[in-house]
Design brief:
Layout (H helix, E strand, L loop, with lengths): L3 E3 L2 E6 L5 E8 L10 E3 L2 E7 L5 E12 L2 E7 L7 E4 L2 E7 L16 E8 L7 E8 L9 E4 L2 H7 L2 H11 L6 E5 L4 H4 L4 H18 L6 E6 L1 H10 L6 E7 L18 H13 L8 E7 L5 H14 L2 E7 L5 H6 L1 H13 L5
Parallel strand pairs: 12-13, 12-14, 14-15, 15-16, 16-17
Antiparallel strand pairs: 1-2, 2-5, 3-6, 4-5, 6-7, 6-9, 8-9, 10-11, 11-13
Length: about 350
């Protein structure tokens, strides 16, 4: 039976065979409550306190006894048809009352074409970029949105559909997406000076050679990509006018000890502290930020939003009722990214 909301809790059931010895819920650690199912008739049952979320992703961890000992596997909920593809594989999804996917997902969008190029700079490896453009705009100067983890945003957060739908509806001017591939993600997206300079300097210039850019560039990303988008924007590069960061990994030593084993934690926390300590800016940016209210990153995102506002940037920070995943980031694109792009790009028509 599919999970069911009952008053203040969600009931999960698993129809266990005779060889099943335990069942546990595998979900984000931010969700409170016991994960362990109890025997209930010929199956297993769990009552999970209702979390303050619109939706959440989960799997079941099932342990079975066999002739060669016990085995454990993590599986989708066999009774729940609602699933989602994530960066870490498929997940079952519990959608709570009131949740609705964004309407632009099913809207008609303008056709798009893609061009592959490589950005050569200070990194040992070139940075591959897939350039998405509205059909029929070859040679036209258009606004540019540079996207870290670009292919993942396109596949898992439907970013190209978002742009196509917003352009078709007239909500945004015709624009291009530079979808950057995260070849060496941890090394590049952790405050690497070489990577930051490659994107902000030679990278944007290289893109402009292939597709002319009209107006200030906006840089975006999520998690480590959200950190990187901000650090690129804060470089002294006049071509960049806006940043959109989702669940940015703004690690601080006092808040994020659980991340201290990450190889680049020291570099990130030092760079973040430099930004937090900055009291004024000579080049104000338009910055949009979103984060799940229950995420581990929520506290450091609040600190970062306040520091950026104090330094003189125009900042909007929104907490959403979801967690650290691409669907949460997708659902927050409109209106939050839309507002940043409108503010930076103005009334350009392409």
């Amino acid at each position: 039976m599919a999970p069911k909301l009952l008053d203040d809790h969600i009931r999960f059931r698993f129809a266990g065979a005779d060889d099943v010895v335990s069942v546990a819920l595998d979900c984000d650690s931010a969700i409170a409550g016991s994960r362990h199912f109890m025997r209930a008739g010929d199956g297993w049952e769990l009552a999970l306190p209702r979390p303050p979320l619109d939706r959440f992703e989960y799997r079941f961890t099932v342990t079975r006894d066999g002739l060669d000992g016990s085995t454990t596997e993590t599986v989708l909920d066999p009774d729940n048809p609602v699933t989602v593809e994530t960066a870490f594989g498929s997940r079952s999804v519990m959608e709570l009352p009131g949740y609705a996917a964004p309407s632009w997902l099913s809207a008609t969008g303008v056709p798009g074409v893609v061009t592959d190029l490589a950005l050569e700079g200070e990194t040992a490896d070139d940075v591959p970029v897939t350039l998405w453009s509205p059909e029929g705009t070859d040679g036209a100067a258009l606004p540019l949105l540079f996207v870290h983890d670009g292919p993942e945003y396109a596949t898992l957060a439907s970013l190209t559909q978002y742009s196509a739908a917003m352009i078709a509806a007239g909500s945004l001017p015709p624009h291009r997406l530079a979808l950057a591939h995260p070849v060496l993600r941890d090394a590049w997206y952790s405050g690497s000076p070489q990577y930051l300079r490659t994107i902000a300097g030679q990278g944007i210039s290289r893109i402009a050679e292939v597709a002319p850019v009209d107006g200030p560039v906006v840089v975006m990303g999520a998690s480590l990509g959200g950190l990187t988008a901000l650090l690129v924007g804060l470089l002294d590069v006049d071509e960049i006018g806006g940043v959109f960061s989702q669940s940015g990994s703004f690690f601080q030593t006092r808040l994020d000890g659980q991340e201290s084993d990450f190889p680049w934690f020291g570099r990130i926390s030092r760079r973040v502290q430099e930004v937090l300590d900055t009291r004024e800016t000579a080049r104000p940016l338009r910055i949009g930020m979103t984060c799940g209210a229950l995420e581990e990153n929520a506290a450091n995102n609040r600190d970062m939003a306040a520091a950026l506002q104090r330094a003189g940037h125009t900042v909007t920070y929104t907490e959403v009722a979801d967690l650290h995943n691409y669907t949460a980031w997708r659902d927050a694109l409109d209106p939050h990214l839309t507002e940043v792009l409108r503010d930076v790009w103005g009334n350009r028509q392409g």
